Amino acid sequence: xNEAIVQAKRMSKSYQMGHGxxxxxxxxxxxxxRGEMVAVMGPSGSGKSTLMHLLGCLDKPTAxxxxxxxxxxxxLDDRSLSLIRSTKIGFVFQSFNLIPQLNVKENVEIPFLYQxxxxxxxxxxxxxxxxxxxxxxxxxxxxRELSGGEMQRVAIAxxxxxxxxLILADExxxxxDFETGNAILGxxxxxxxxxxxxxxxxxxxxxxxxxxxxxxMRDGQIVSQEAxxx
Length: 230
Known about the structure:
Rossmann fold; 7 helices
């Protein structure tokens, strides 16, 4: 049986809004095994972005438990959460989140700087990650000199460089045309075949069908989980 790399047990998240309490996530049970590629889908306001924030250790649940590689995330302080984010989780966003003043190679190296590592210790890892996404020839280019697809490949290389336990992708094809988005989905599938564990938040059924499993959310709860035949 494959190891559960992500495991949430009755996980909830509430926010104080004025004098009221808004519950964005309601007692969710959720797990992902190592090497899985999972789509989290649902309409706006369904709780999928809140779930992504909790899984990415950008926030902590107000109730329930969340374990990443067996580690109890709710028990960690902010500094420990920051270390988890920079060593175990690779993030890929719809808007790429590249720093415009830095070249391709420097953008990929950002997570290592958060870890406090010296450049000579991570230069090779950054180059290898860029080669994996077929951008080894664009090291010194700035983001403005790249196409949308190339910028997303840089973001994926940045996520890969730290050899993360988990890659979280939030609407990764949302700002791309169909052909470019298709290429990015193909890259994600290739990385998954190589052993990467991916969770992708999307509203697009076509994108979801490129994953192995679709988890559907509504009103802060998981309402169904289905295997994808592909």
